[in-house]
Design brief:
By secondary structure, the chain is of the alpha+beta class. 18% of the residues lie in helices and 32% in strands. Strands 1, 2, 3, 4, 5, 6, 7 and 8 form an eight-stranded mixed sheet that branches.
């Protein structure tokens, strides 16, 4: 069975490095490529002990979830969110969260211009 978020992504627009920003499930979805050491250290200090890895499509993963950033008031730390690329887990935040609190930022290894 295909999960709803991935199914929608396959039928509709899916976030890519070249698209940069899409509308998905009623919110903006973007991507970022930054070092993850602080994100991992914070998660591990909070008891998140599953494997960290990079999926073949370039998404950074925690267990079977895509690592995402979001506004913690809207998407609490550790919450599961639907993304155009599958289920994500909110383990990070950023300055975008103040001006666009509904947005989800997907952690990737993509580079600008790909």
């Amino acid at each position: 069975m295909i999960k709803k978020g991935l199914f929608q992504g396959l039928l509709g627009v899916m976030l890519t490095a070249s698209l940069g920003r899409i509308q998905f499930n009623g919110h903006d979805e973007t991507w970022y490529c930054l070092p993850m050491e602080n994100v991992i250290a914070q998660a591990e200090s909070k008891g998140f002990t599953e494997e960290w890895w990079i999926r073949a499509d370039g998404c950074r993963m925690y267990s079977h979830y895509i690592v995402c950033a979001g506004n913690y008031r809207v998407h609490p730390y550790g919450s599961i969110v639907e993304t155009s690329r599958g289920e994500g887990i909110v383990l990070d935040t950023g300055s975008f969260a103040k001006t666009n609190p509904e947005a989800i930022d997907i952690a990737t290894v993509w580079e600008k211009g790909e």
